[in-house]
Amino acid sequence: MSHDQLSMFEGEAELPPKSAKTKPLNLSISRTIAAPAEKIFDRWLIPVFVGNWMFGPNVGNEKVLDLQNEVRPGGTFSYKIQRGGKEFIYSGEYQLIDRPKRLKFSWQENNTPPGNISVSFEQIEDKTKLKVSLQVDRSLAEHAEVIKQQWTDRCKALSSELSK
Asked: Could you state, in order of their start, the residue ranges of all structural domains in the chain?
């Protein structure tokens, strides 16, 4: 019997110790964008902007179906996207909103294990250094480069949108 199954017979199943939980995989991306931190920060929270840079035809072969956002600590978001004839739902909960310095939220795509994303916005003269830190479940390690590339592409699309 595996550790994640419970036995119907008392004393037969032994649960793994809490310390056996694997540490998340940490990834990070940095980009300097020629725009004020406030403007960039708002692009992460306002659905119409999110649909222009995080998803949709400006990022990949995607169609934005629905963007819902409750912007407050403890508030949730849900983004429904169509890609390759399939629907994807990205969802999470805002853990920290410190405008225009920091943003932290959970992130889950369909039924993949949830992760966390922290974003810092550092204003340097007329530019902003954006740092995106991703914590993903260790089970997604084989997809680490793809995940990092997706977020790199998203940050590039955000930068392009703000330079228009």
From this structure: 22-159
At 133 the pLDDT is 98
**Residue 13 CB partners (closer than 8 Å, separation 6+):** 1, 3, 5, 6, 7
Strands (E), 12-139: 25-33, 62-69, 76-83, 86-98, 102-109, 115-124, 127-136
Burial 78-87 (b: 16+ CB within 10 A, else e): ebbbeeeeee
d(Cα 53, Cα 91) in Å, to the nearest integer?
17
Q: Give the pair of three-digit tokens for residue 1.
A: 């019997």
CATH superfamily label, 22-159? START domain (3.30.530.20)
d(Cα 46, Cα 43) in Å, to the nearest integer? 6
E-only strand ranges, 14-75: 25-33, 62-69
This prediction has a pTM of: 0.83
Low-confidence residues of the chain, pLDDT below 70? 1-21
Taking CB atoms within 8 Å and a gap of at least 24, the contacts of 105-112 are: 105/77, 107/134, 112/137, 112/140
What's residue 59's pLDDT? 76
Q: Give the rounded distance of the alpha carbon of 11 from its chain centre.
A: 41
Distance, CA of 44 to CA of 91 (rounded, Å): 14
- Determine phi and psi for 56, rounding to 5 degrees: 90, -170
